[in-house]
Task: inverse folding
């Protein structure tokens, strides 16, 4: 099957099978693959680029044993630990991001889930932020139940984030304390209470190309329209600290195949961008149309102004349709 034929099928509203996605990933002419993915993005999504920022609202002391994560109490990684960020700091960060033109602001907390007490506190922060600045609010707080998710919705939070992280079949080799099924239940509960959903994963954790495609297909089955793609940034003290990096071709090919499988999604630069500064423009051409800007959780992020400058110089405009 030719790349152009698959592209035209996607543009006409068709879908690729698992076997066709694998065939795409093996294409010899990678430049043609990347161009085709970029054309799918431009023709279906337009030249709009979505931005979001995050606040590390609760850090460290996590009970889970996710092998990639410095926040786990099971590993000796050196990070800041605190129970909950203070309200004033959170409000100032939100205001600063809004002034830069960032569209969304997300509360991200460590741990399997968040206590009802801390959910109430962060809901209070959300109400004050919504009253003060024009930001869409998101949350990433682990495996919450329906009642907790409903509280977030009532406080003005509009999107819930819960990464699948990797292919369902590969996930148990990286985490033993929770399952993909639990993540999927959280995603479905978030949808049931009226929240939008953001879910993606991390590449470069020792998974195969097939695993990456299976992750993309699992996300497609869930109908995810905001997909953060993280590239593993190996952190000393975690079990994946010595994992060899992906090649540039593996990264760009993954982005392009994700675009073929998710033609209408926001495919989002996320963690690990500091490792691929030289690839950012190529990654956008290959299908990226969104990014987490600013600092990340336990590794350095990127300067908001610089991110916005790069995107606009490439001919994209910032998506602000969702700002109320």
Result:
């Amino acid at each position: 099957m030719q790349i152009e034929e698959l592209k035209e099928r996607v543009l006409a509203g068709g879908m690729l099978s698992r076997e066709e996605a694998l065939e795409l990933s093996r294409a010899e002419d990678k430049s043609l693959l990347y161009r085709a993915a970029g054309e799918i993005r431009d023709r279906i999504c337009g030249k709009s680029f979505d931005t979001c920022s995050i606040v590390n609202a609760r850090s460290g002391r996590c009970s889970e044993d996710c092998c990639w994560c410095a926040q786990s109490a099971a590993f000796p990684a050196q990070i800041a630990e605190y129970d909950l960020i203070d309200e004033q700091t959170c409000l100032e960060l939100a205001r600063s991001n809004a002034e830069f033109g960032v569209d969304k602001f997300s509360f991200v907390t460590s741990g399997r889930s968040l206590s009802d007490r801390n959910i109430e506190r962060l809901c209070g922060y959300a109400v004050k932020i919504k009253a003060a600045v024009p930001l869409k609010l998101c949350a990433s707080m682990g495996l919450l139940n329906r009642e907790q998710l409903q509280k977030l919705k009532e406080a003005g939070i509009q999107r819930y984030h819960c990464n699948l992280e990797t292919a369902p079949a590969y996930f148990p080799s990286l985490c033993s304390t929770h399952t993909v099924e639990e993540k999927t239940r959280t995603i479905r509960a978030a949808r049931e209470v009226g929240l939008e959903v953001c879910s993606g994963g991390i590449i470069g954790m020792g998974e195969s190309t097939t695993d990456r495609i299976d992750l993309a297909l699992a996300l497609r089955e869930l109908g995810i329209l905001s997909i953060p793609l993280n590239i593993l940034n190996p952190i000393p003290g975690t079990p994946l600290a010595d994992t060899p990096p992906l090649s540039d071709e593996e990264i760009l090919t993954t982005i392009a195949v994700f675009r073929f499988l998710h033609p209408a999604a926001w495919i989002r630069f996320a963690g690990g961008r500091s490792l691929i500064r030289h690839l950012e423009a190529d990654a956008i051409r290959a299908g990226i149309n969104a990014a987490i800007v600013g600092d990340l959780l336990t590794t350095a992020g990127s300067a908001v102004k610089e991110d916005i400058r790069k995107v606009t110089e490439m001919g994209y405009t910032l998506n602000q349709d969702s700002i109320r």
Remarks:
- Residues 116-132 form the longest helix (17 residues).
- The longest strand covers residues 48-58.
